[in-house]
Amino acid sequence: MGDVLAGFHAAWEFESDSVLIRYERGIRTPRLFQALGERRVPLAALEAVTLAAGRRGTVVLHARPRPGADPLMEAADGQLKEGCDPYRLVLPAERETLAEYYADELRGRLGEAGPAERFLVDPPEAPQSFKAYDGKASFDGTTVRFRWSWTGASSAKWKAGDQSFPVTGLSGVEWRSPEAFEGHLRLRPRDTTEQSARPAQPDQDPAAVVFGLGYGPVHESLPFAAAVLAAVRACGPVPAVTAPRRDPAEIAERIRHLGELHRAGLVTDEEFLAKKAELLAEL
Questions:
Q1: What Å distances lie between residue 240 and 92, 94, 117, 122, 166, CA to CA?
Q2: How large a percentage of the chain has pLDDT more than 90?
Q3: Which positions fall inside the SHOCT domain (predicted)?
């Protein structure tokens, strides 16, 4: 195709086998988009394209990636807010006819649907780094390093000392958005015995860093998680891990603490109910 469709915060350039998405760097552009810069998405990585009415006189062209095709979306695990979805192109409503034309063109070029066997979209490039609440995380392409902060790290992490994790010893990455309750980034070891022995709480786990207000923002911590996840997958298949059941007393204590935050107005009703359900599901 070779044509360009420009919307708010991004422009899509349509090519024969891919879509090149270029994100703006304006002050109103989501910071995640600015951090991504541009992304080439092979059509083989997509499973659907939709066009729907948006807010305030806009339409939204939305490409849905196949599960397992994009390391960024795999790391995000459905936690991105709608406005930060890198596969949404918001356009003025008067461009609906043009957008429908490109949506039809893309649909006609899509191939196999369903989970992808490997990542098809390039991950964010290393080196990556960001400042978490309890330390600084860095990744050079082969090794993840955590250097603890004396003002935020727990005594358990200070006792363990600064940490280095070669990606060859990891099985995955767990990212919990800093915009939600108890955000963190946790590394999962390939050794299942070692994983089961890890503390349940991220603030006590030397293989995790926790987020706070202004620490580990999405535009820094999510590309980091995606880059690490892609490097881990490049090392080969990882063993399946069954999550250990949690101590009921620990779950009850966390729900009690969550209730205190809710009563103090620090957690909304929706956040309280969602997190409570998540904790109960761990029993």
A1: 46, 49, 16, 24, 19
A2: 71
A3: 253-280
Phi, psi of 70 (to 5 degrees): -125, 115
Answer whether 186's CB lies under 8 Å from 203's CB.
Answer: no
Q: Find the mean pLDDT for residues 199-209.
A: 93
Positive or negative: CA dihedral 133, 85, 280, 188: negative
The CATH topology of domain 128-234 is PH-domain like (2.30.29)
Radius of gyration (C-alpha) of the chain in whole angstroms: 20
Q: What is the mean pLDDT of residues 207-231?
A: 96
Structure tokens at 158: 């200070």
pLDDT at residue 220 is higher than 60:
yes
User: pTM of this prediction?
Assistant: 0.83
For the chain, the structural domain boundaries read: 4-109, 128-234, 248-281
Contact status, residue 187 vs residue 205, Cβ threshold 8 Å: no
pLDDT of residue 87: 98
CB 169 within 8 A of CB 185: no
- Are 61 and 89 in contact, with CB atoms under 8 Å apart? yes
**Number of C-beta neighbours around residue 32 at 10 A:** 22
Angle at 246 (CA atoms; ends 240, 251), nearest 5 degrees: 140
Pairwise CA distance, residues 42 & 120, whole Å: 7
Judge whether residue 30 has pLDDT over 80. yes
Q: Of 144, 149, 145, give the one whose Cα is nearest residue 134.
A: 149
CATH 2.30.29 assigned to domain 4-109? The reply is yes
Assess contact for 171 and 123: CB atoms under 8 A. Answer: no
Same topology, domains 4-109 and 128-234? Answer is yes
